[in-house]
Amino acid sequence: DKDYLIAPSILSADFAMLGTEVDNVLEAGADVVHFDVMDNHYVPNLTIGPMVCKALRDHGVTAPIDVHLMVSPVDASIADFIDAGASFITFHPEATNHVDRSLQLIKAGGCKAGLVFNPATSLDICEMVKDKLDIILLMSVNPGFGGQAFIPATLDKARAARKFIDDNKLDCRLEIDGGVKVDNIKEVAEAGVDMMVAGSAILKAPRTVEAYKETIDAMRK
Ligand code: DX5
Ligand code: ZN
């Protein structure tokens, strides 16, 4: 049996009670906290930064925090999130001038490193940095907002990424982000993805542990 990670995106949390939301979604069975960082420059939205990541650690969150950087440039934020207690840090290759250096910075800080690919971005660069990739993250929506519809062409891209990981025998997670729901997660898993982000599908009213658990259990099933 394969091990899958479910990573709720706190972009859809109630930010007025973020600590409770994260506690609840972890109690409901989430494996990882997906943390979306947007700078109103690389993407047309503005969210949360390293202070909030540090606050979750101080609150007592010990689960892995998966920091998805949608910022440009990236290197200063990498340093800040290493200090703030991030576990995984991923960034978009087009958002930095020096992809290899940015990956090295993440790994030197003791975090797992990954690249994020927009729907229209090719995976070609993976070949050049394959020894440094712990995660390949495929966007199945255009980054910037929660609640968008899954782009079906991502499934072919996932199969290609899975083949690349297996052919090269990489110890690398294949993550997907955007529009993942109970009714399409099986297809996503069958395409070779082993780490699923889901925001609006999980974090919604009534915002209780029981409701979150029901969705996460259904996704695992
Ligand atoms: C989009 C973010 C996603 C988003 C996913 O830019 O990277 O993590 O929160 O939200 P849903 O699951 O609602 O598409
Ligand atoms: Zn994300």
Question: What does this entry look like structurally?
Answer:
It is a single chain. By secondary structure, the protein is of the alpha/beta class. It has a single domain, classed as Aldolase class I (TIM Barrel, Alpha-Beta Barrel), CATH 3.20.20.70. The chain is built from seven helices and eight strands; from the N terminus they run E-H-E-H-E-H-E-H-E-E-H-E-H-E-H. An eight-stranded parallel β-sheet has the order 1-8-7-6-5-4-3-2. Helix 2 links the parallel strand 2 and strand 3. The chain is globular. The two termini are 12 Å apart. The model has no long low-confidence stretch (mean pLDDT 98).
How do the helices and strands line up, and which of them pair or pack?
Blueprint: E1 5-8, H1 18-27, E2 33-38, H2 50-59, E3 65-70, H3 75-83, E4 88-91, H4 99-108, E5 112-117, E6 135-139, H5 154-167, E7 173-177, H6 185-190, E8 195-198, H7 209-220
Parallel strand pairs: 1-8, 2-3, 3-4, 4-5, 5-6, 6-7, 7-8
Bound molecules: D-xylitol-5-phosphate and zinc ion.
The site of zinc ion has 6 residues, from strand 2.
